[in-house]
Amino acid sequence: MSTEIKVPVLGESVVEATVSQWMKSKGDAVQADEPIVELETDKVTLEVPSPVAGVLEDIIAAEGSTVGVDALLAIVAEGKAASKPASQTPKAPAQPAPAAPATPAPAPAVTASSAAVASLSPAVRKLVEEHQLNPAAIRGTGKDGRLTKADVKSAMENGQARNTAPASTAPVSAPSIARSDDPREERVPMSRLRRVIASRLKDAQNTAAMLTTFNEVDMSAVMALRSEYKDEFEKNHGARLGFMGFFVKAVITGLTEFPAVNAEIHGDDIIYKNFYNIGVAVGTPQGLVVPVLKDAQNMGLADIETTIGEFGQKARDGKLGPADMAGGTFTISNGGVYGSLMSTPILNPPQSGILGMHKIQKRPVAIGNSVEIRPMMYLALSYDHRIIDGREAVSFLVRVKESIEDPRRLLLGV
């Protein structure tokens, strides 16, 4: 009996993916729930498992191809024995080989390393690229000789596998767009994730009547509260007490009072959402992703901080799934972790608002009739003026400011 392996539902508004890597080859034995192929979307990288045990009978979608939801990826012959060992089989359907050049040239020294990098899992690839290692020089202990994170970390500890190969001297192909070239330039194709990010950000600018309002918040009270309780908080909850939890709570307070900031436009209708799914923007080597705290109004501060920590780890390991990213109603972006003092964040469609946090910097401020040095942060709210009036946007941001400057409001709900 043959079982078809198809592209699963990829998440909200995601309709296609790229086949980035086959983990099994035609004729390999597979176990039920064992990952056999890795797909890359504009938001995440996900592994597709086999629902049954058997043999990978046929691979339909080659590596690098674009596939839509429910497209056929492969066929597994249920219950059959493998016809040959996996190590003797090519990884995926081979593309037609190019014609040999008239005068063969030696391959660049880095070619083997580049090919090896392309076959790695996202987490292992990240380690290899960050530390400039040559994966071909590391012995893999995973299934079918694949490299694991433990293999790479062991090689790093032993000072092995440094990529010292000289740069390639192969001739560069002619550019596809006529322009003057400079030998100091390097042309690389945009990743799928970066292409879609660029498209979505431009669409947001073209569609929404986007406007940004600013304010500043005195972080003294929150910083004092955090300093006093952070050790006890971490001991009791196993999570680090950061500032994001306070801002999530403050945002929910504001959204409750100003529901238009949590709404979206759908055709000629406005959809008001009586729940608060707060997206928290996270930077990764592949680009910006926004995992979502579902029903954050029902979460305590410890739940928020724990979940954000888990999202951060999954993002670094390339393990965020479509379900982690779907359903957001409002987004918070923290450019302050990179040193940004002020910026205008771009909306995450179809949402109508996004809050930008920034660097905490000590500045002189007027307190009554005196001037004091306080830790201040600029806040920016970008919003869709089609649905949110200026009064609502400014009032919402003032409510967030008030909640952060007096965290007792969050406890008392005032």
Descriptive notes:
By secondary structure, the protein is α+β, with helices and mostly antiparallel strands. It folds into 3 domains: 2-88, Beta Barrel (OB fold (Dihydrolipoamide Acetyltransferase, E2P)), CATH 2.40.50.100; 115-162, Dihydrolipoamide Transferase (Irregular); 209-412, Chloramphenicol Acetyltransferase. The chain has helices at residues 111-118, 122-130, 149-157, 192-207, 220-237, 244-257, 301-316, 322-325, 390-405, 408-412, and strands at residues 2-6, 16-22, 29-30, 35-40, 45-49, 54-59, 66-68, 72-78, 210-218, 264-266, 269-271, 278-280, 282-284, 287-289, 292-293, 330-334, 353-357, 361-367, 370-384. Strands 9, 12, 15, 16, 17, 18 and 19 form a 7-stranded mixed beta sheet that branches. A 4-stranded antiparallel beta sheet has the order 1-8-6-3, with no helix packed on it. A 4-stranded antiparallel beta sheet has the order 5-4-2-7, with no helix packed on it. Strand 10 (264-266) and strand 11 form a beta hairpin. The longest helix is centred in the middle third of the chain and has 18 residues, at 220-237. The chain is globular.
